[in-house]
Amino acid sequence: MRQSIGRHRRTGTLSIAAAVAVASGAGGVLLGLSNDGARAAGTTVTVSSTASLESAFARATAGTTIKVRAGTYRPTRTLKSTADGTPSARITLTAYGDGKVRIDGSALPAGSWLAAIHGDHWTVSGLTFQNSPAQGFVATSSVGGIFDNLVTADNGDSGFTLRGDGTTGNLVRNLDSHGNYDAANHGQNADGIAVKFGSGTGNRITGARLYDNADDGLDLWQFSSPVTVEHSWAFGNGRNRWNDSAFRGNGNGFKLGGGGASVAHSVHDSAAWANTLHGFTENSNTGAIRLHRNTAYANRADGFYFATGKARLTRNLAVGNGTGKARLGPRTVSADDNWNSGVATPPFRSTDARAVDGPRGRGGALPVTAFLTTGSTAIGSTMR
Length: 384
Ligand SMILES: [Ca+2]
Ligand SMILES: [Ca+2]
Prior knowledge:
ten-stranded parallel beta sheet, 8% helix, 29% strand, twelve-stranded parallel beta sheet, mainly beta, metal-binding
């Protein structure tokens, strides 16, 4: 079809309108673009091979939708785009139907990121990014991104990353990020989700499961604008699962800063358990971090470590952590937390964590579980 239209155009025997009519009659291919073309605004491209995925990604422009058929794709270079969508003509990368799509970095050169966008108004949904030699998925200085129902697993550095100044108004919803490990640095960098080295308001993380990563579940190191985290779980981070004799993973569930930034992040209705360091920590961020109705259980160090800053903690629950419920400094404000006098600790309905990393519910919701629930409407995470 592309050839025949080109021939007609060169000889001038077919008007554009006629060409469109001919093209449309041949399965809806627009203006002679192949299925991998993706040049026209509003174009939908369906890909089923690694080469066509690479091509579609590189050519995406405002209004492009790339649908990826079920299967495993092994790009040989970073899937990279600097294209911007707009609020009304987003760039969308998504699974075709309910297909299971794995974008696998095992064929990339050492040190390569697997997917990297440097643009605004992208929607990326329903995909797994795995086995990268370095970062799994990275959005740099992106505005208005929607990152929905993604899995970032077993990558050679952090699974999912937002970074750079001008990182504004992004939503990360229902991310599963696990098993990420940077062997070259003995696990000291690979977090489940990293929002690091940048700034920009309105970024929100909700419904995440961040587990079994070498370093931290979530890390907000040197991000100098407030980030909102809610309905998210971080567990099993920091354990040496790779037989690394020089292992250096930190193992915080939620690491809420560090590197000099003083910023009032917010964490609500989230839970951290079985991490090798703290459940929730300011990590030297002196800002007025807000923590409300979170649960820390069986972390190896403190449930809540906020010793130097101005954090404000309310209605949080800490149980069974290795070195204590909470370590708070003189400028920290704490009210109605279960370490305050006169505040009761409601018993957990279950401490059986077996189902928590199982299949998600409809629309990607966290699985329904009794784990760490108490039924209290006053204190601790609802685990939903
Ligand atoms: Ca670290
Ligand atoms: Ca980290």
